[in-house]
Amino acid sequence: MSTPPDRPPFFADAAETWNRRYAGDDFLFGTEPNAWLREHAGTLPTAGHILSVADGEGRNSGWLARRGFQIDAFDVATRAVEKAKAFAQRQGVSVNFAVADVDAFAWPEAGYDGVAAIFVQFADPDARARLFERIVRSLKPGGVLVLQGYTPKQLDYRTGGPPILSHLYTRELLESAFAELSIIELREYEAEVREGQGHNGPSALIGLVARR
Q1: N or C: which end of the chain has fewer CB within 10 A?
Q2: Residue 4, domain member (yes or no)
Q3: d(CA 74, CA 56)
């Protein structure tokens, strides 16, 4: 059976794909935190327990840990988590890392003061729906979600993200998925993104900050 057009072969085995992409000693998306996360960190509680979803090589979890948060982080790629652990150790911070996908991760009920979900666009629509539902359930009352992704216009730029329309975010998608939350900011915009080799160039972005 042939692969459907919106599910190219490199998404057939996410762990294999990302282990291969993270195989080198360099950092695919750099070592600096994501700009949307950095700019909106002030909306997070001043202390507490934060989850970094699909954390990759640890640039976001490490930065949040340096700000004094207790951090959980997971990624599907064993190689990414190995690099993230070493990166955290070099920074002198502690992060509770797990190798897991959206279904295998042990999501707590109302366990987090904040969730960071930055460019989590490997998920097809079904997996994404499960992910977003679990993010909402995992937030404590008053907990904050900081999320960033690419919009469909990113298909014109191709400077990062999956070249698959169904994996990209729209305002309507996020408003529907997070209808239980109070939206603080939801913005579509374009900007130059310089995050290693993985995200590099003019980009069509959408950012969300929302509170439970």
Answers
A1: N
A2: no
A3: 8
Query: What one-letter code names the amino acid at 127?
Result: A
Centre a 10 Å sphere on the Cβ of residue 119 and count the other Cβ atoms it contains. 25
The predicted structure's pLDDT at residue 1: 32
Residue 26 CA to residue 83 CA, distance in Å, equals 10
Write the burial class of residue 201 (CB in 10 Å: 0-12 exposed, 13-18 middle, 19+ buried): exposed
Residue 1 lies in a domain: no
Q: What is the pLDDT of residues 175-194, one digit of tens each?
A: 999 999 999 999 999 999 99
Greater confidence (197 vs 52) lies with: 52
Range of the domain at 122: 9-211
Q: What share of the chain has pLDDT > 70, as a percent?
A: 94
The CATH number covering residue 72 comes to 3.40.50.150
Q: Cα dist. 17→57, 85, 154 in Å?
A: 15, 20, 21
Residue 18 CA, chain-centre distance (Å), reads 14
Quote the pLDDT of residue 4: 37
Measured at the alpha carbon of residue 172, what is the angle toward residues 169 and 178, in degrees to the nearest 5?
A: 85
Give start and end residues of each alpha helix (H) in the chain: 14-21, 35-40, 59-66, 78-91, 125-138, 154-157, 171-177
> How many domains does the structure of the chain reveal?
1
Q: Say whether pTM exceeds 0.70.
A: yes
Q: Is residue 71 part of a domain?
A: yes
